[in-house]
Amino acid sequence: MSTFFARLTVERRIESIRMPKGTIQSRADIAEGLQYLARQCPVLATLIKEVPEVPLRRRPASFASLASIVISQQVSKQSADAIFRRMEEHVVPLTPEKYLSVGELVWTKIGLSRPKQKTLSAVSDAMVSRSLELNSLAALPSEEAIATMTAIKGIGPWTAEVYLLFAIGHPDIMPAGDLALQIASSNAYGITDRMSEKELRARAEPWAPWRGVAARLLWAHYAVQKERSAMP
């Protein structure tokens, strides 16, 4: 075999290893991703031993799930949960068509800020016109899926990445703008200053194609550290 074809064969083998198998659907998928990450990164291998569980955290691929993520931006979990409960009470069924039909008075009564009203209106319009089809996002590479979502006014990278991670189950998403992930990564690597989004994205490159499992692991590590710091 020539040197060229030998190299091509190796490259194809590497590519096949790095390509994820569909979406993250089960605990078995999490386990497969963790095994891969443990081989790739000694720091993550240590975290895997320290974290009692890496949760699946899947939700339906739906308008309701995306609305919940939009609502959770820049507010406490308690406030977001209360607003979403009111949305479920006043927008029945919770679909883009129904959201558009109830109008601004109901949106305000629910507790949605003006920017979030506009974002959810833009999402609803895109879904009704079929310019955004949530189920089709699973078949796209991560960069293309994120670009498709962020093309909608009001949807930023964090919202798109969190939705793709938990509602679509995309295996190779790292929401590097997330504060908890930045803190967890800095802690894991013994870095005093919190990692920036750019630094975390660069750090996560070798974790492909299982960055979605790495993100879950880091969130689980963050929760453990937070619980420890709260202990007397």
Description:
66% of the residues lie in helices and 0% in strands. By secondary structure, the chain is mainly alpha-helical. The N and C termini lie far apart (66 Å). Residues 1-20 have low confidence and may be disordered.
Identify the CATH architecture of the largest domain.
Answer: Orthogonal Bundle
How far from one another are the termini?
A: 66 Å
Classify the fold: give the CATH topology of the largest domain: Endonuclease III, domain 1
> Using DSSP, what is the number of strands?
0
The CATH top-level class label of the largest domain: Mainly Alpha
Silhouette: globular
CA gyration radius, whole angstroms: 20 Å
Q: Catalogue the unreliable spans.
A: 1-20
Concise summary:
Helices cover 66% and strands 0% of the residues. The chain has 232 residues and is mainly α.
